[in-house]
Amino acid sequence: AYTVPSLLSWEVKLNTMSGLYRYDSENNLEPILVDFINIQDEGLTYTIALKPDITFPDGSPLTAEDVQFSFLRAIRQGNFLLNGFLKDSDDDGFADADAIQILGELSLRITLDKPISYFTSVLATTPYFI
Questions:
Q1: Which residues on adjacent β-strands are paired with residue 48?
Q2: What percent of the chain is helix, strand and coil (3-state, nearest 5)?
Q3: Is 84:2 a contact under the CB 8 Å cutoff?
Q4: Which member of 15, 19, 26, 80 lies 3.0 to 4.6 Å from 129 by CB, making a disulfide possible if both were Cys?
Q5: Model confidence over 74-124: pLDDT tens digits?
Q6: Which of 57, 66, 54, 56 is nearest to 108 (CA)?
Q7: What DSSP line would sit under 22-42, residue for residue?
C-alpha cells in the first residue's frame, strides 16, 4: 500500500520546504532544523532536539507537534520512506502512530522497525519535510 512519489512534487518540495536535514553543495549531510540528535537502542531510537526560534513563513514557531503531524500525514498517505523504515508492530505496511513521540515542545523520538545505518540521510528526503 505504498505510494510512488511524483518527481514533480518532489522537486517542488525541495525548492519550497525544509526538512530536518539536507545535503549542502558539496554533498555533505547537514542539520537544518535539528539542534542535536541522539541515537540509542543500537540504532532503533532517534531522539531529536529541534533548533529553537525556527518559524514558518507566517511567523508561527516550529514545534515537535508540527514534525509529528507532517510525518503522520505522510504515513497515512502511504509514503514508503516512512512506512518502510519506522516501527510497524502489526506488520500492516503502515508505521505505528507511536513511532513518532513528542517528548517536549522542541523534542521528539522516532522509533525504527530495525536499525538503519543511513537513517539520518533518509531524514533529508522530501517525505520527511515539515
A1: 37, 108
A2: 30, 25, 40
A3: yes
A4: 19
A5: 999 888 889 999 999 998 999 999 999 999 999 999 999 999 999 999 999
A6: 66
A7: EE-TTS-EEESSEEEEEEEGG
What is the average per-residue pLDDT within 35-50?
97
Model confidence, pTM: 0.86
Average confidence score pLDDT of the chain:
89
Q: What is the pLDDT of residue 121?
A: 93
Please count the CA atoms within 13 angstroms of the CA of 30 that sit on its side-chain side.
8
- The cell for 21 is 536535514
Long-range contacts from 71-76, C-beta under 8 angstroms, 24+ separation:
71/100, 71/110, 71/128, 72/97, 72/100, 74/127, 74/128, 75/99
Residue matched to cell numbers 540509542? 40
Instruction: Give the residue carrying C-alpha cell 522537486.
Output: 11
**What SS3 string covers 58-91?**
CCCECCHHHHHHHHHHHHHCCEHHHHCCECCCCC
